Amino acid sequence: MSRHRRRRLFGTRRAGTWKGNEIVPVSSMDDERSLVPVPFPVSLTPEGDDGEAKEPDADPEAVAEPSFVITLDASNFSETVSKHDFIVVEFYAPWCGHCKKLAPEYEKAALVLSENDPPIALAKIDCNENVNKEIASKYEIRGFPTLKIFRNGGEDIQEYKGPREADGIVEYLSKQVGPASTEIKSTEDVDKVIVDKKISIVGIFPQFSGEEFETFIKVAEKLRSDYDFGHTSNAKLLPHGDETVKQPIVRLFKPFDELFVDFKDFQADAIEKFIESESMPIVTTYDNDPTNHPFLVKFFDSPNAKAMLFFNFSSDNYNTFKSKLHEVAKDYKGENIKFLIGDLDASDMALKFFGLEKDQAPLIIIQDSKGHKYFQPNVTPEQIATWLKDYAVGGLEPYRKSESVPEVNIEPVKIVVAKSLQEIVFSSGKNVLLEFYAPWCGHCKKLAPILEEVAISFENDADVIIAKMDATKNDIPDEFAVQGYPTLYFVSASGKISQYEGNRTAEDIINFVNNNRDGISQPGSPDSVKDEL
């Protein structure tokens, strides 16, 4: 995944921070921590009163069972990985609830896979240990648990994207060590490769040799953790498509839209782009059907702009809305915008993410590749195409999620919301220390009394404001790169922005404010914000 700065639906994704922040997950949908709520129904709620998972009561009589999972650390990681043609490594943290749930399943799978021919090695590394954090940073670990597959002594690395229960882990990894593409010689082979509700890619070749075949196998090796690949010389065995294929073809089977698509360009990059493009529906469905989950993951993880229509699927105009959105989506195919249709009964998390209410439905919202949002409530089917055209030509005003501005704001630490951020932080002519926090974050809770102490120390200083913003309920401006909680930024009276990365003690924070503040409020600034608040 690209490491360059990019706003996405899951927040701004960059390398995780290790200064006590909650680590920001990127690719795994079951990670313990999240910068923002994941907008479809999977459990991400941190466990325990302090935002961390609770330890089970220890049994003093218990005797440790022998482990088949290899324990890695900074001293043996590289050496161990380099000795294996294939090894799976779990990057975990002891406090992570999802890691604890995975542990017994991972151990069971390790036992079974140790008897595989050849054996498949499973390993783990504790990323909470200081000596191991450099390794976690090297492999861009931003959430727990993260599993990676290392091939060829660590030369090739892939994300593990399989199940997290023992039987599923065994089945998934057994396929991963076999051939990247399965030869299809019978209808039984077809049933193994082309599975209902999944994406499957089959190469059709007159003979299994030559440049086209070799390119196909290379692509299969690269993408094998995402898709099932097969190859055949007998197109008549396949469920769809021309049975008399005379030249090499890549045929992609999918459980939506036109059901299959053929592709004849055998440049590796072209095949990969074809698979990526065609493996998503023209319109992704967001409902309670678990078979749609993989396509939701791809939709929300896409860097493209996203247009999402939410309404009640049980309404009389369901077919009209669905038909109209499909019609519009086809017009925009290839225009770097993806479409989704969502049922209100399944979309609570998405609506919460965007700060929307069900009584605004039918509603349509767009989030562009820079994170800017555009919103239209109470939309009709006839308005969809026109509204999309207005967006395409830049004719819409961005929408920003925000809590209401508090009527009373007299506590030492002032409350900032998206609607009041410009006034308090950028236009007040004050020196402002702003905390971005999440209500469930344990580190934020520990910082709260310290921040209040800092605020009290500046109560009689008209040029300084100590403030906080709930980043789960307010959109974060582009000026601030928030990659974990809590994150503190200082905006001087003259507008200079700097991130606080020191120790979280009142003394250190106070010194930071005094060292970075401007001496006086800026000329022409409004009356004291503190007085107004």
UniProtKB/TrEMBL annotation:
* EC numbers: 5.3.4.1
Identify its protein family.
Belongs to the protein disulfide isomerase family.
Q: Which reaction does it catalyse?
A: Catalyzes the rearrangement of -S-S- bonds in proteins
What are the recorded GO MF terms, alphabetically? protein disulfide isomerase activity
Q: What is this protein called?
A: Protein disulfide-isomerase
Q: Where is the Thioredoxin domain?
A: 53-178, 391-518
Record flagged with keyword Isomerase: yes
Q: Where is this region: Disordered?
A: 38-62
- UniProt xrefs under InterPro entries: PDI_thioredoxin-like_dom (IPR005788), Prot_disulphide_isomerase (IPR005792), Thioredoxin-like_sf (IPR036249), Thioredoxin_CS (IPR017937), Thioredoxin_domain (IPR013766)
The listed locations are: Endoplasmic reticulum lumen
Transmembrane domains' residue ranges: none
GO biological process terms held by the UniProt record: protein folding; response to endoplasmic reticulum stress
Q: List the disulfide bonds.
A: C96-C99, C441-C444
